[in-house]
Amino acid sequence: MPHDLKIRNIVLVGLFNLNDFDKYFFIKNEILAEGDFQNNYIYQPPNIIQINTKTIQVVILPTQFIATSLNPLEVTDNIATIVRLILKNSKTSSISGLGINFQWFFSDEKKSMHEISKQFINPADSVQNSEFNTQDSHFGLYMSKNFKDARLKLDIKPSIISEKSNKIEAIQFAFNFHFEINSTNVEDIDKFLSDYADYYQKASNIMSFYNYE
User: pLDDT, tens digit, for every residue of 52-110?
Assistant: First the structure.
């Protein structure tokens, strides 16, 4: 059963002054070099800033900051380091939420979504057995716990993904490591992001339990 890490990003919620994030800001603070910027650079404050390099995309909106890996399987792209440098050198101090996200997808074109989801989440209680026992029933699961400085949330559910203009049924494994921000201390946020590799490893270890044919 093929599986892929398709989404790997860092999302911050807060208030961002887009005028602070022009191209000069990134070059002056040695976050990115002039040659790192791809042609589809968008600078339209106060609405949106979008920066694309060969490895990551950074989108800054008035209330949201999203850094996304363009090659999710290449975990050496320093996405967390770049976000840390941006926060360290910016004037941003009103961050209210922060999450590190990893999303894997399993698919099997030889099986129905009913079979795939039941293979991962075996329904056992009476409600599932009596009310969701038809061939069109799909199954999901939600789990959470504390891990290091984060609240780890894992949502397993049926999903539809687009691949080369095709719609593919898949099971989505969505990991969210949420950091509860109790202050505007940038050092606390930096410490959380410095453990990015540990959060990725934790998600990968959990996924190894589901890695079977």
Answer: 999 999 999 999 999 999 999 988 889 999 999 999 999 876 888 999 999 999 887 78
For range 4-15, the mean pLDDT: 94
Q: Could you give the CA distance from residue 86 to residue 79 in angstroms, rounded to a whole number?
A: 11
Can you tell me the distance from the alpha carbon of 50 to that of 39, in angstroms, rounded to the nearest whole number?
11
Between CA 136 and CA 58 the distance in angstroms is: 39
Interacting residues of 49 by C-beta distance below 8 A, sequence separation 6+ = 18, 21, 42, 43, 58, 59, 60
- The C-alpha atoms of residue 14 and residue 64 are separated, in whole angstroms, by 6
Q: How far is CA 27 from the centre of its chain?
A: 26
Compute, in degrees rounded to 10, the torsion defined by CA atoms 170, 174, 121, 152. Answer: 170
Report pTM: 0.90
Q: Is 148 left (phi over 0), alpha (psi -120 to 50) or beta?
A: left
Q: What does the chain come to in residues?
A: 213
